[in-house]
Amino acid sequence: MTLSWQQSYEAGNRAFCGGLYDSAHNIAKEAVETDNLLWGYENQQVAEDMFLLAEIYRRQGHLTQAQELFNRVLALKIMFFSEVHAETLAVFIKLLWVALEENRYATVLELTKRAVEVCGTLYPVGAFSKALDIKCLLQSYINQNHQAEAERIAQQIQQALRTALGSSHPEIRQTLTDCST
After folding, report:
1. Which of 8, 32, 75, 152 is deepest in the core (most CB within 10 A)?
2. Is the pTM of this model over 0.85?
3. Cβ-proximal residues to 33 (8 Å cutoff; 6+ apart), any chain
């Protein structure tokens, strides 16, 4: 029995949310390959499947593969929606996390500037910190007894925002609150 795109995506997402990354990886990878054959590379379903697969790679620690797929998804989302869109912002934020996890500070600064510009156009002040979902990212490190790593990432986020936006930008206060571990 062949699953529809929606059924396949939901099955992959359920496995992902359940922490079954190997299963989610297999489902998402097959979906990307199948959807690409059916609809071609420049398709929203393919982009959604690639986004899920990239996030699975990121969670598994395969950051190079994650970055490559997130970059492909970003190009598609910009083509579909424009750079100033919630869908595009979500990809910027995932690329920002990959750069943080790889300690690529120059890239973190560049992505922070772009993401804050997009977020500032779409949402009120303070929304960027919420979009980053900092507490969720840091909590995963704390849960694994990596407090020092959580603190390092929190400091990098704060420094990147200060450098990218200036220390008096309204997003800084909200981010300092969200980064407290």
Report:
1. 32
2. no
3. none
